[in-house]
């Protein structure tokens, strides 16, 4: 998992914690204050846990020491889990089914959220081994035997499911990253040429089947080489990113926007030719009036073509390219269609 995906995972965990810890606080506070089954140990543990949940939530809310909070919580929950299982095994001999049986799987879910997959498996099995040792003295009791065995088997199953589920998630993320790398431009985070080719083929197929139309808006940044030569390629890359972000904020959700290559971009839209020309003109003015961070102002030239019967990707793109070439030769910063 690269740093970008890792940051997304950390942000997702933070959102989960901000929801889960208040729920744990409310659940334990309610049990402490209103349950008639709170024993001496729980009477001491529950106030501490409620205070702990509150402190951890505040730290995570203000985005402070989140990793430290995770590790400390792992230890605190581990101690709590072992004590609850210890009392659970003793109560089984008396025929009492402790409700913690229902809650214990959550601890193992948390282990796999905090630790790397193999470490989480090893830690989970260690905790399970300790609980098995706790239960051995009670296995002779028929009332405790069956429940304990079921508890241990179910814990093993939870652990294995979590272990392989995390691998499935990792594989999905990896495949999603491969897909994104294959079809998205890493600099501008929009579709690359391969994606645009696919979009054009799909749009032509859709239009042939439904007798509808679409337009291609082919445009590039004027004098972009001059920007690279004068300011350097780092600034040139930043202009491309800012330019892409600006255009992306004005297209419709149904439009397709991709980088054709270098400073060249393509928009596929289901607008009519007239609407596409009008939109291109608005976009041209928006770009011209936008104050870019490092180069102040840039302009763009546009070529517009629309779908015609018997079109293939090469023909419709060629007409848009010819229109863009004409815009370049007629002074740039203009919209032309052929």
TrEMBL record:
- NCBIfam families, alphabetically? GGDEF
Q: Which domain of life is it from?
A: Bacteria
> What is the species listed in this Swiss-Prot or TrEMBL entry?
Ammoniphilus resinae
Domain called GGDEF: residue spans: 212-338
Q: Which UniProt keywords apply?
A: Membrane, Transmembrane, Transmembrane helix
Against CDD domains, the record matches this protein to:
GGDEF
Has keyword Isomerase? no
TM annotation in the entry: 16-34, 40-62, 69-89, 95-113, 120-139, 151-173
Q: What is this protein called?
A: Diguanylate cyclase (GGDEF)-like protein
Xref: Pfam families: GGDEF (PF00990)
């Amino acid at each position: 998992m690269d740093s970008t995906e890792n940051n997304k995972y950390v942000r997702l965990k933070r959102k989960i914690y901000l929801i889960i810890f208040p729920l744990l606080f409310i659940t334990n506070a309610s049990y402490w204050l209103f349950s008639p089954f709170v024993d001496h140990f729980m009477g001491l543990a529950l106030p501490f846990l409620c205070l702990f949940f509150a402190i951890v939530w505040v730290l995570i809310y203000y985005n402070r020491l989140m990793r430290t909070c995770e590790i400390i919580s792992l230890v605190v929950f581990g101690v709590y889990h072992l004590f609850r299982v210890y009392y659970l095994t003793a109560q089984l001999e008396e025929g009492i089914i402790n409700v913690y049986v229902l809650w214990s799987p959550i601890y193992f879910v948390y282990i796999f959220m905090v630790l790397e997959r193999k470490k989480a498996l090893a830690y989970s099995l260690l905790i399970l081994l300790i609980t098995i040792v706790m239960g051995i003295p009670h296995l002779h009791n028929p009332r405790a035997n069956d429940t304990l065995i079921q508890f241990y088997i179910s814990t093993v199953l939870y652990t294995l499911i979590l272990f392989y589920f995390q691998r499935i998630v990792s594989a999905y993320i990896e495949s999603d990253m491969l897909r994104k790398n294959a079809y998205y431009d890493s600099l501008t985070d929009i579709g690359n040429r391969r994606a645009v080719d696919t979009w054009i083929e799909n749009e032509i197929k859709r239009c042939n089947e439904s007798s509808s139309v679409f337009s291609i808006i082919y445009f590039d940044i004027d004098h972009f080489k001059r920007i690279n030569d004068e300011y350097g390629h780092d600034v040139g890359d930043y202009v491309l990113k800012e330019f892409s972000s600006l255009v992306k904020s004005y297209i419709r959700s149904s439009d397709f926007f991709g980088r054709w290559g270098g400073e060249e971009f393509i928009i596929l839209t289901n607008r009519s030719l007239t609407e596409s020309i009008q939109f291109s003109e608005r976009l041209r003015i928006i770009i011209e009036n936008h104050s870019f961070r490092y180069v102040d102002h840039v302009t763009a030239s546009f070529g517009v073509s629309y779908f015609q019967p018997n079109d293939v990707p090469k023909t419709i793109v060629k007409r848009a390219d010819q229109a863009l070439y004409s815009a370049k030769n007629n002074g740039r910063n203009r919209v032309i269609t052929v």
